[in-house]
Amino acid sequence: MRAAVLHNYGQPMKVEEVEIDDPKPTEVKVKIAASGVCHSDYAFILGEQYWEGGMPMILGHEGAGIVEKAGSAVTTVKPGDHVVLSWIYACGNCYYCTVGKSNMCDVGRGEMVTGNTLADGTNRYHKDGKPYYHFLGISTMAEYTICDEKSVVKIDKDIPLDKAALVGCAVMTGVGAVINTAKPAAGESLAVFGSGGVGISCIQGAVLSGAYPIIAVDVKQNKLELAKQFGATHTVDASKVNAVEEIQKITGGGANYTFEAVGQPQLMRDSWDALAKCGTAVVIGGAKMGDEVSIPALDFPFTEKTIRGTGYGSARMNVDIPKLLDLYRGGKLNLDDMVTSTYPLDAVNEAFADLHAGKNLRGVLMM
Questions:
Q1: In this predicted model, what pLDDT tens digit does every residue of 305-354 receive, in sequence order?
Q2: First vs last Cα of the chain: how many Å apart?
Q3: Predicted confidence (pLDDT) at residue 242 exceeds the cutoff of 90
Q4: Would the pLDDT of 50 be above 70?
Q5: ∠ CA 128-133-139, rounded to 5°
Q6: Neighbouring C-beta atoms of residue 46, cutoff 10 Å
Q7: Cα distances (angstroms) measured from residue 287 to each of 48, 50, 120, 228, 243
Q8: CA nearest 310: which of 320, 298, 296?
Q9: CA 67 centroid distance within chain
Q10: In the 8-state DSSP scheme, what is residue 296?
Q11: In percent, how much of the chain has pLDDT > 70?
């Protein structure tokens, strides 16, 4: 198969032929139709986020496709089924899975991440006798992938696969951060720092929740215009004004909820400062390795503010992926306009360059 391969941090991706094994008993082989181009992949290419797993590695963690082959013990899908791939593997047996926090699964957050392998600690890609490694258990920037059946969710065949792919990361992360993690009440105020794919998804989650006002913050005017298209009631151009002060003016003292969807410590602090008393700041963005954020200690007893994280929108993928696609089918969730550019696999580096330049809401590789 052809795949987009990262050989070393800081280098462009290389599209090349890679050998792929058959699936083991609990695994499936999926013919990838579409793979989203996410900033998390880009941060990994740059080495801003990294771990000690093997190289070379096939990137991609947001995708959808069609099951081509299923292992002998697979029970949830069969060849021909359409699926969304999820980079959160939920073992179903660890403490977090059993208490309803499968997005924090010990296995999914363990060797599959740090070792760049599948759940059993091995891989299924190789070339000239050399192993090629997985990314978050799914490696969607390829014509095919091998993954565990617990990393796929069956979906209805009438859902366009390029739109369904987005639910595998950006949309689930952003919408879920609002409706699963924060759970604002109707009429509560909300501000989102960053209007990329995740931030826009936060805004869509805010609309679903009935929040008001919904404030989008960014430094790019094209992103703020898109934010209004997806439901933001107010926008703040942080390149021209102090975003915290503007949010305080709009809300009459501070927002009930803020969401940081970029991964910058200063914006995490801004999201804290922009809160009303008793408000909650939700950190979504993946910062660089080693980054820290500082908060005034006396704010905790004097304001009763809360800051918390969210991983994958606090999602239970087998429940929430079909739910979001039902909302899409019902016209309540806009996935169509989130795909602003599509690229062939060979243009993977162009797609990442456009991501870095802020040209796209979501670019998608089409296999």
A1: 999 999 999 999 999 999 999 999 999 999 999 999 999 999 999 999 99
A2: 11
A3: yes
A4: no
A5: 120
A6: 15
A7: 8, 11, 28, 26, 20
A8: 320
A9: 22
A10: -
A11: 98
Q: Say how far apart CA 358 and CA 327 lie, in whole Å.
A: 27
Residue 62 CA, distance from chain mean position? 7
> Based on the number of CB atoms within 10 Å of its own CB, is 299 exposed (0-12), middle (13-18) or buried (19 or more)?
middle
- Single pTM value for the model: 0.94
Quote the CA–CA distance of 154 and 244 in Å, as a whole number: 42
The DSSP string of 222-291 is HHHHHHHHTT-SEEEETTTS-HHHHHHHHHTS-EEEEEE-S--HHHHHHHHHTEEEEEEEEE-S-PPTT-
* Contact of 276 with 190, CB cutoff 8 Å: no
| Angle of helix 197-209 versus helix 221-229 axis, rounded to 10 | 30
- Measured CA to CA, the distance from residue 181 to residue 314 in angstroms comes to 6
Sign for the CA dihedral angle at 178, 181, 186, 191 comes to negative
Question: Whole-angstrom Cα distance, residue 191 to residue 270?
Answer: 11
Q: What domains appear along the chain, each with residue ranges and CATH number?
A: 2-168+335-366 (3.90.180.10), 174-310 (3.40.50.720)
Long-range pairs, 88-96, Cβ under 8 A, ≥24: 88/311, 88/312, 88/315, 88/317, 89/119, 89/137, 89/148, 89/150, 89/151, 90/150, 90/316, 90/317, 90/318, 91/119, 91/150, 92/150
Give residue 98's pLDDT: 94
At 34, which amino acid appears? A
Q: In what order do the strands lie in the sheet with 2-6?
A: 14-17, 2-6, 57-58
Task: Report the amino acid identity of residue 293.
Answer: V
Say if CB 185 and CB 157 are below 8 A apart: no
Please give the helix or strand (H or E) that residue 351 lies within, else none: helix 348-357
Q: Nearest Cα to 232, choosing from 248, 245, 247?
A: 247
Contact between 62 and 18 (Cβ < 8 Å): no
Secondary structure (DSSP) of 162-208:
HHHGGGGTHHHHHHHIIIIII-PPTT--EEEE--SHHHHHHHHHHHH
Instruction: Identify the pLDDT of residue 109.
Output: 75
